[in-house]
Write a structure and sequence with these properties.
By secondary structure, the protein is an alpha/beta fold. 33% of the residues lie in helices and 19% in strands. The chain has two domains: 2-63, 2-Layer Sandwich (Alpha-Beta Plaits), CATH 3.30.70.1140; 83-337, Aldolase class I (TIM Barrel, Alpha-Beta Barrel), CATH 3.20.20.70. The structure holds phosphoenolpyruvate and manganese (II) ion.
Length: 341
């Protein structure tokens, strides 16, 4: 339910409404606009009549949000969500590029890649340390040792780091080390994990599940948003289809469709969505042309010997070329890349 306050409603009127929301066992989510404040009353609203709030002083109108996803919907928050991340913004006119290895493999590997992607124009560094591998017999990531290397890479390059979280027990250490917690495709419906990151105030990159609909992706984001963590970005990373020529099928439709459904920034991962390095630049360019708010891409200094996802990893040289091309595509659609520090 959305409670739209009169322009100029007083602080005490807003607080009075919040108190009534809590008394109805709902949770209040306040959006303070330039002219008007909107208060979301989220929870099981079926039995709650709108008149409960309509009669309160300072209330202009009360409407029910028709979609099952509430806090992520455009209806609740018509403007794009734009939030800062260490030197740049996500969700605005300028598009950040997040790049780095699939997995952190060693200190030297990570530092070499971090400097190379920074040089080529990346705005943030990615690198997994807890890896969700299909087989339990292959490299599973360096764990906390990898977080130390990421902290060093961050220190040397100034790039914020994006790292996948796999379990609730990792929240504390992740909050300490990382700028963005990635929820991987396989954990998109791990509701305990979603709730746990929703309790933090660390930004979250939520990847679409392998066979999740866009509505399911938004419902997953509700678990994070309803905990009060509003710094959520969504990521299309390819879905399972009958096609076997590529690892996954990039659902490029997801970009404009999500932009219509939600105010949250939409990022595209051309690496996992194709699985083949040679196709990555084309799909990254198509994503920017389609309106994506960011790109997250795998880059490796020695792809043939990578411990995970080498086939889809760009070399630093190919990444640098891709960034130059992305800039021109971004400008053609009246946007730009975030300039590198
Ligand atoms: C990754 O980013 O390395 C990863 C495992 O991605 P996904 O969850 O999209 O498969
Ligand atoms: Mn990977």
């Amino acid at each position: 339910m959305m409670i739209i306050m009169n322009p100029g409603a007083s602080r005490s009127q807003i607080e009075h409404v919040i108190k009534h929301i809590e008394d109805a066992h709902l949770s209040p989510h306040v959006i303070e606009g330039i002219e008007q404040t909107i208060i979301g009353a989220v929870g099981d609203t079926h039995a709650v009549p709108t008149s409960l709030f309509e009669v309160l002083p300072g209330v202009l109108t009360v409407t029910r949000i028709s979609k099952p996803y509430k806090l992520s919907s455009r209806q609740f928050h018509p403007e794009n969500s734009v939030f800062p991340l260490d030197g740049f913004s996500i969700g605005g006119k300028e598009i950040p590029v997040i790049a780095g290895p699939c997995s952190v493999e060693s200190r030297s590997q990570l530092l070499e890649i971090a400097h190379a992607v920074k040089e080529a124009g990346a705005n943030a560094l990615r690198g997994g340390v807890f890896k969700p591998r299909t087989s339990p017999y292959v490299f599973q990531g360096l764990g906390e040792e990898g977080l130390e290397y990421l902290a060093e890479a961050r220190e040397q390059t100034g790039l914020p780091v994006v790292v996948e979280i796999m379990a609730v027990s990792q929240v504390e250490v992740m909050e300490k080390f990382v700028d963005v917690m990635q929820i991987g495709a396989r954990n998109m419906q791990n509701y305990n994990l979603l709730r746990a990151v929703g309790e933090t105030r660390t930004a979250v990159l939520l990847k679409r599940g392998l066979s999740a609909t866009l509505e399911e992706l938004l419902m997953a984001s509700e678990y994070i948003l309803s905990g009060g963590n509003t710094r959520v970005m969504l990521c299309e990373r390819g879905i399972r289809t009958f096609e076997t020529a590529t690892r996954n099928t990039t659902d490029i439709n997801a970009v404009p469709v999500l932009k219509e459904m939600t105010h949250l920034p939409v990022i595209l991962d051309p690496s996992h969505s194709t699985g083949v390095a040679g196709y990555v630049p084309s799909i990254a360019k198509s994503a920017v042309a389609a309106g994506a708010d960011g790109i997250i891409v795998e880059v490796h200094n020695d792809p043939t010997h990578a411990l995970s996802d080498g086939k889809q990893s760009l070399t630093p040289e190919d990444f640098a070329k891709m960034v130059r091309d992305l800039k021109r595509v971004a400008q053609a659609v009246d946007r730009d890349l975030v300039s590198s520090k």
